[in-house]
Amino acid sequence: MSKLESYVASTTEVDDSEVAVQEILARIPLEKLKKNSVGIVACHYEFDFSGVLKSIAEALPFDVVGSVSSAQGTQGGAAVFELVLTVLTSDEAEIALALSDPLEGDTQEVVRTAYDEAAGKLGSRPDLILIHGPFMIQNNGDDYLTELSAASDNAPLFGTLAIDDTEDFRCCYSIHKGKTYNDRLVLTLLKGVEPRFYSAHIAPNKIVGDPALVTSSEGALLAEVNDRPIAEYLAGLGQTSLDDPDYALVTMPFVLDYGDGTAPISRIFIQLTPDGKAVLNGSVPVGSELVIGSFDKEDALETTQVAIDEALAQSASPVDGRPAVMLMYSCIARFLALGADYLAEIEQSQKQIGGKIPFMMAYSGGEYCPTELTKRGAVNRFHNNALVICVL
Prior knowledge:
globular; 392 residues; 6-stranded mixed beta sheet; 10 helices; alpha+beta; 26 strands
């Protein structure tokens, strides 16, 4: 049996703090909370501007962390203007939080210090690190992952970079104790839990062309594949709308194979620079292989269905008992691929999951999830264009 219990509450009351607090409290039996509890929130940034987020956090007897999202949902509903709160509570599992200093310049020391602060409260390596960060164009989400994996001896890392619906991403806030930050990382470390992980990105039949070897790159800036400029390679595949960021973001993800036997992951292609380099939302190591994918609404819904079916099938095991909760983050590119039917992925998930497991789903500017668990620790990855799932 899971050592955690969970309660999921939501409200669409974005203006009236008193009503919103009443709706949340009505769905959380405070008298049943265990010794250790934390609330994980996903909400539109208007809940911060109106003061509703702060009021809810202040009304609860446990800390609230999380992230802003462009849409979110649970069994009870799905909306853009919604606040979803998932409460994890346990007498056995331990919980520790940390808020980083501003993520400016070299982030390694900042991330390491935040991790050490939270790990120090536990006294040993966590069984799970939940990460909520701001989406910052100047920072590479892989850098946070690299430092946290090293600091924790490859403890499993799961979570999201916040995403909003503004044109300049000015409200991509992480949330710590009800307060919002556009430049700080929030960590929740759990000890005494056994998480399971699942992910979905691009279906194999959506791959275009043959694999190409990455021969020149720096971080998230891809210069050459097969010793050819990336712009020349893409043009050879008939990709003619490379100067349109919306086209690249939604329809043309890269699938990246690290070449080490681990599962491939997806990378969003943001745009070409004036000198013909591809800007991706995540690192592209030299020596890895990539292929171009073609992404649309149908693929987003089909791959989501497969991942959730797998999670539900394994979670139904009578040996382990009923899990406490399913946490899910889906890339903003999947949201955009849905077009006018922008809540379809959440609504499909509601129908699939039903009342089997309490769940929370929110959109993301970059997803953290292991691709596998080994005796040496988790193989943590920073994903794009993916749905990631953690079952606890």
